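Entry:
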Amino acid sequence: MRRALAGLAAGALVVAGAGPAGASVPAAPQPITRPRASDWPTYGHDAQHTFHGRTTLTETSAAQLQTAWFFPTGDAVTATPTVVAGVVYVGSWDDTFDAVQLATGHLLWKYALSHQNAVTPYPGEPHRDATSDGGLVTSSAWYQPGNGTRPDLVIFGGGYTLYALNAHTGTLYWRHDYTGNPALPPLPDVDGARIFSSPVVSGNKVLFAVDVDGQRGERGYVVAANLNTGSPVWSYETDEDTAGHLLDNGCGNVWSSGSIVPQAGLVVFDEADCHFSNPPPTAETVFALHIDTGRLAWRFQPHRPDSACDFDFGASANVGVSTDGAATFLGVGGKDGTYYSLDPTTGHLRWKTNVVFGGFSGGFIGTTAYDGARIVASTAIGDFGRFESNGNQLCDPSSPADTAMQEPSVHALSASRGAVLWQATGAPSFAPTTVAGGMTFNGLALSDAVQVRDAATGRVLTSVTLPAPCWSGIATVGDTVVFGTGASEIGAPDGIYALTPGGAAPRQ
């Protein structure tokens, strides 16, 4: 069973325990604080999940990055921190969500989430499962400015629960459970459903998805929730057969976050495989929904089999938008080691580029970065992790490219043509890549380090050694890079890091 949380630090503004279900309306609305251009207000920086941020760092100052502060947590932090108006917001696998001062690393408030015992690992677990997909919080927060009656909110997933907290006080505004089987009451001791998906807000709708990780009798799906209450407005079923019948067979899982195509009124998700196969119509697809209705606009599925290869889609799509709001680019990487560029309004394939074979722990797992000209990303380890009695099981042993460890592991592609611009080895990653100031930022899968490269050439500018791996995305704010540490096999020492040139106090 998930252990009770330890006592919280005295002196901090703390909200102890999860609030009751339903909306909790504050006595008076908070002043409206809108994100600045230099902030990092959501997963992937923006609703298009470009992971293209801003920074005042240069190649020279980035080479001098050191720890400005470290905020310890009780377990891993794999969600990308959200940073708005000098406050860092992020949840941890220790079942809490924290707000921390960017300038000092001091705790502003802490919110304790509802326990969901079926989700592991958890703090203090004696034997951690290194194959786990993550603890209670893997979803990054969306920062939503208030409207005069509603306060500024941070909205995120914790297990199967979607939370909205007052961004200034940490008090609960609303919460709603989105379980693996919506027809049943919440069963936290047996239901391992999770909202891996980081929510995105469009109009009055909070868009996100649910993953049940193969749990029979349950299913994944996509939801639009009401911004004011958290209650569902519409849902889109991703676990249906070709006749439209719900299967509840543990499939239809969506890890990705919805990427907004604004002028067309679409949100784009992608879907994982189904028990190591890709049966039609939804498994291993990229799909766009009409935001107003949840109706399917288009669906793309690569023309390739998946015979126990585990060729999921899990990374979020990158969308490029012109100044007038028209979508000019849409692309996403898959665990088959291929990046696909699609027409944003039709889903038709424009180009595809394969860089590695992919497989169980390979291909594009972390979301790629898009700066308008390039896609830059790291692929993961390779076809490693499915063990049989005779050792590691490969998808296609006859292919020389299908290996447990796959290189190259860092890739830059032309956004217009898909041509490989440069590649590098020795840096596989499960984390998303950030691009800012002509540099890339990424945490490594097999080394306890964060690496910074020249985005034009791939040249390593610096590698900052850490006491634990970084599987979170990296937020760039002013001269500071902010990220979490921790992984499935290690629960401590983990927390939130802020790096600055020389370790000086962060400056925006």
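Confidence is low (pLDDT under 50) at residues 1-26.
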